[in-house]
């Protein structure tokens, strides 16, 4: 189909979300550059901190990533000494991920820069709109949404946001 016949360039929800994600990643990456982390690396450290010592599977699920993508994302953080992987004492087949002291310090260092980016986003977009956007996106990345999508059934309004 020639592009001249497409009236809504954002008709594909997936493409629109990916473009928005790439733009926000660029902006947040620039804000975080002084601490040497990307927004995705900061997210990994934050999810590990929140999870305590999550297994790779738990961390991948929390981040809505497959395990191979997670493994690629944590390699530079492990190389830089911000996290370690340890064999799970209860299930030797599983690996747990933990922040090191350097990782906790790097996450703390990134917080001020991240807060600046977050505040700028809310200034530009509006804090109420930003809050509503986070709720809508949490619904979209929820397990309930994925199940409804696979089944082709409507998701009741307001469901899935608890996954945030």
TrEMBL record:
<feature type="domain" description="HTH marR-type">
    <location>
        <begin position="10"/>
        <end position="142"/>
    </location>
</feature>
<keyword id="KW-0238">DNA-binding</keyword>
<dbReference type="InterPro" id="IPR036388">
    <property type="entry name" value="WH-like_DNA-bd_sf"/>
</dbReference>
<dbReference type="InterPro" id="IPR000835">
    <property type="entry name" value="HTH_MarR-typ"/>
</dbReference>
<protein>
    <submittedName>
        <fullName>MarR family transcriptional regulator</fullName>
    </submittedName>
</protein>
<keyword id="KW-0804">Transcription</keyword>
<dbReference type="InterPro" id="IPR023187">
    <property type="entry name" value="Tscrpt_reg_MarR-type_CS"/>
</dbReference>
<dbReference type="InterPro" id="IPR036390">
    <property type="entry name" value="WH_DNA-bd_sf"/>
</dbReference>
<dbReference type="Pfam" id="PF12802">
    <property type="entry name" value="MarR_2"/>
</dbReference>
<dbReference type="InterPro" id="IPR039422">
    <property type="entry name" value="MarR/SlyA-like"/>
</dbReference>
<keyword id="KW-0805">Transcription regulation</keyword>
């Amino acid at each position: 189909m020639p592009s001249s016949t497409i009236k809504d360039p954002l008709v594909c929800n997936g493409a629109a979300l990916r473009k928005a994600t790439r733009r926000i990643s660029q902006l947040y990456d620039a804000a975080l550059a002084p601490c040497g982390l990307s927004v995705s690396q900061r997210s990994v450290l934050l999810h590990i901190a929140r999870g305590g010592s999550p297994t790779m599977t738990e961390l991948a699920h929390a981040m809505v990533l497959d395990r191979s993508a997670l493994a690629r994302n944590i390699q530079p953080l492990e190389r830089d000494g911000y996290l370690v992987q340890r064999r799970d004492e209860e299930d030797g087949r599983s690996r747990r991920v933990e922040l090191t002291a350097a990782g906790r310090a790097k996450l703390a260092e990134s917080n001020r820069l991240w807060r600046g980016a977050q505040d700028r986003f809310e200034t530009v977009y509006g804090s109420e709109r930003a809050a509503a956007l986070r709720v809508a996106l949490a619904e979209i990345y929820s397990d309930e949404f994925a199940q409804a999508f696979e089944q082709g059934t409507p998701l009741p309004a307001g469901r899935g946001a608890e996954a945030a």
